[in-house]
Amino acid sequence: MFTTVISISLAAILTNNFIFAQFLGCCPFLGCSNKVDTATGMGLAVVFVMGLASAICWVVNEYILVVMGLEFLQTLTFILVIAALVQFVEMFLKKAVPSLYSALGIYLPLITTNCAVLGVVLLNVQNNYNFIESVVYGITGGLGFMLAIVLFASVRERIAFSDYPECFEGFPICLVSAGLLALAFMGFSGMKIV
Amino acid sequence: MKTILLSMLVLGVTGGIFGALLAFASKIFHVDVDPKQEKVRAALAGANCGGCGYPGCDGYAAAVARGEAPTNKCVAGGAATAAAVAEIMGVTAGASEKMVAFVPCSGTEGHAEMRFNYTGPKDCRAAMLFGGKSNKTCTFACIGLGNCVKACKFDAMHIVDGIAKVDRYNCVGCGACADACPKSIIKLIPESQKVVPACSNKDKGARVMKICDFGCIGCMKCQRECPADAIVVKDNLATVDPAKCVGCGHCADVCPRHIINWFGKQSQAV
Fold first, then answer.
1. Would you say A34 and A41 are in contact if contact means Cβ atoms under 8 Å apart?
2. What is the value of ipTM here, to two decimals?
3. To probe the interface with B, which of A166, A168, A173 has the most B CB atoms within 10 Å?
4. Which residues make Cβ contacts (< 8 Å) with residue A106, sequence separation at least 6?
5. Which of A57, A99, A107, B241 could join A121 via S-S bond, C-beta 3.0 to 4.6 A?
């Protein structure tokens, strides 16, 4: 059990990083990486929602969809669950933990329709993970996302002050450096837990 | 058939449950927002220009409602908004002098000497990379590639004849253009100030004479002729003291370089 958890975590954070290896959640990755602060906020929100969504969606899948033989409704149901969940969490945080609410700010509702969140719950089903494995995969997948976006934000902060051809100004240079980062993460792909 | 019905049922019921839960939760977790904050937010201009110094109109409304911010900071809304906000907060409005942006440069195309013909990206900062100054010989001149135009959210900034020109009717005085100007020449002046010299060059007169048809040469004529002693030539550049200026516009008439803008008439002079 322990080794599976470790291997799932390592895979989610490094070898199968959601952004750099599976290319899920690229939109917030590019949109929210101007500053390290916002990137951290976004990353935290993703960790939070991914973990919760994995837990709830596993239960919904196992005890409603599989029991009724309706596995083909997974995508639809998961979107519904995630959207409702994010709304609920937002309301709850606003009331119970205002400090966390203001820290996550606008990022919570933003990731309602993030494909990385939907991706993680669908992958949980595909990989036949049990409840604990699903939650671990969700949280570590979020951590991988956070690692990627914070790294990239710090790279972008440096790019802002460096010399590059003017035709690359704005998004082009950003995409080039994202590609280089993804290339760097490919170095992890040889890792295996035995 | 059974599968279709079942899936409709399951999705419908799940959706219904979630909807009910959310409705229920919104009642339980309802957070009372200060009603003043909502009213203040409604009274603001809503341009999110940042001229007040807070992150957007919501941020400013929250700060006003908490009593931390003065009520007259919404530059886009001007005096009317300040009065409305003050009324909501139950305080008297502090005087909020309407400010407008001004570009103190008259070096229009063909009149200011060019150092080189710039054809790079349409961006003042990019143009400044060549020698770190400008494409014009005058180091104080407006480059005229429109960083301020891009920054203006109110369509008040336009490039006319190669330099930036402020549309005083549209300008709300948020100062976004002044921040965006890499030459830092754009100033915010009180709208009531009638006389503004449109040049920033502090070089000696002889040099200015050579490089620009419309540069202040520091001839002191305005200083001598001003009936109110409101114009002083400092660092080879005419400056107006708005407190003393009576707005007669005499300086604009006598200036041999025709660079003093007089806003006494409805339209801008020169």
1. no
2. 0.71
3. A166
4. none
5. A57
Most confident of A7-11, A58-62, B111-115: A58-62
Please, which residues 44-83 of chain A have a Cβ atom closer than 8 Å to chain B? 60, 64-65, 68-70, 72-73, 76-77, 80-81
d(Cα B24, Cα B30) in Å, to the nearest integer?
Answer: 10
Instruction: Give the end-to-end CA distance of chain A in Å, rounded to a whole number.
Output: 13
Say which of A68, A92, A166 has its CB closest to residue B121.
Answer: A166
For residue B269, name the pLDDT band (cuts at 50, 70, 90): very low
- Taking the CA of residue B73 and the nearest CA in chain A, the distance in Å comes to 24
Question: Looking at beta carbons, which residues of chain B come within 8 Å of A94?
Answer: 29, 31
CA B182 to the chain's CA centroid? 14
**What digits encode the pLDDT tens for the residues B133-159?**
778 888 888 988 888 998 888 888 999
Kindly report the backbone phi and psi dihedral angles of residue A24, in degrees, each rounded to the nearest multiple of 5, phi listed first: -105, 145
Q: d(Cα B259, Cα B216) in Å, to the nearest integer?
A: 7
Range in A96-100, A164-168, B124-128 the model is least confident about: A96-100
Sign of CA pseudo-dihedral B222, B225, B226, B232: positive
